[in-house]
TrEMBL record:
Protein name: Short-chain family oxidoreductase
Gene3D superfamilies noted in UniProt: NAD(P)-binding Rossmann-like Domain
Organism taxonomic ancestry: Archaea, Methanobacteriati, Methanobacteriota, Stenosarchaea group, Halobacteria
Pfam family of the protein (one): adh_short_C2
Record-level Gene Ontology MF annotations: oxidoreductase activity, acting on the CH-OH group of donors, NAD or NADP as acceptor
InterPro entries: NAD(P)-bd_dom_sf, Sc_DH/Rdtase_CS, SDR_fam
Membership in a protein family: Belongs to the short-chain dehydrogenases/reductases (SDR) family.
Length: 256
């Protein structure tokens, strides 16, 4: 028996990076997966996530092209999950990051980031919770960031959006506990993905060494490091855990 046998998971931003890592880990743990994204091809290359799941695991997967800024779009994802038996696990992972100068941020830039990082999580959770309340329960996992815990003057909109995801998760856990829907947040630290703006300079060896020196475990994380915690939160191992915020950062925030 695997941890997620018989479960159905929906993962937004599941084509690349952390979402891809979570989707693959869920499938390996026995879940069928609905991968939602605005792009099918992983940013880092390789087979699309749903194809890799179908070829490498015993689980089923499908891809739904979905922009999380459109609340109505989640219905198609929920229907795709219904075809597998109904959503048990919803991972609101899709997000963007960019450095910015606070005094120059425009309203459109602010709104664009909030629409993906916060509104996308809000209405993704709402769509999933609606089905979960009807079916008797489920687990919602919202991907925030260590920047949802501490601030960073280099990306104030991102930090604000991620802090809101944390307190949203607490509120939903409170509101939905009576319906057996658990809601938790994950706060990744520095994870090796291609989240930076297109064309941005690669992190230099020197910057990498400086960053690693601040992380007690001495290295940046891999999507797989976050996926393990997402499997825990999706499974019955965490059946009495809700309204929790789990930091996955190699110890970085523990001594800041
Ligand atoms: N990489 C890190 O160091 C790090 C740290 C903390 C938090 N996070 C968070 O983890 C999550 C995943 O980030 P990642 O590093 O894997 O990034 P990524 O860019 O590698 O992957 C994000 C995926 O989300 C998709 N996406 C973007 N906008 C979308 C939209 N409007 N609708 C649907 N899909 C959309 C992208 O196409 C991409 O496939 C984000 O919420 C991010 O803020 C990442």
């Amino acid at each position: 028996m695997s941890l997620l046998d018989g479960r159905v998971a929906v993962v937004t931003g599941g084509s690349s990076g952390i979402g891809r890592g979570i989707a693959l880990a869920y499938a390996e743990a026995g879940a069928d997966v609905v991968v939602c994204d605005i792009r099918e091809e992983p940013k880092e290359g390789g087979a699309p996530t749903h194809e890799k799941i179908e070829s490498d695991t015993d689980s089923s997967a499908t891809y739904v092209e979905l922009d999380v800024t459109d609340p109505a779009a989640f219905e198609e994802a929920m229907d795709a999950a219904e075809a597998f038996g109904g959503v048990d696990v919803m991972v609101n992972n899709a997000g963007i990051w960019r450095p910015e100068e606070f005094l120059e941020v425009t309203e459109a830039e602010f709104q664009g980031m909030m629409d993906i990082n916060l509104k996308g999580v809000y209405f993704g959770a709402q769509a999933a919770a609606t089905r979960m309340v009807e079916s008797g329960g489920g687990s919602i996992i919202n991907v925030s960031s260590v920047n949802g815990i501490f601030g960073n003057g280099n990306y104030p909109t991102y930090s604000a959006s991620k802090g809101a995801v944390r307190t949203l998760s607490y509120s939903l856990a409170h509101g939905l506990g009576g319906d057996n829907v658990r809601v938790n947040a994950i706060h990744p630290g520095a994870i090796k993905t291609k989240i930076g703006p297109e064309g941005a300079e690669e992190t230099s060896e020197e910057q990498m060494a400086q960053l690693n020196a601040m992380i007690p475990l001495g290295r940046q994380g891999e999507p797989d490091d976050v996926a393990g915690v997402a499997v825990f939160l999706a499974s019955d191992l965490s059946k009495y855990v809700t309204g929790e915020s789990i930091v996955v950062d190699g110890g970085w925030t523990s001594w800041r």
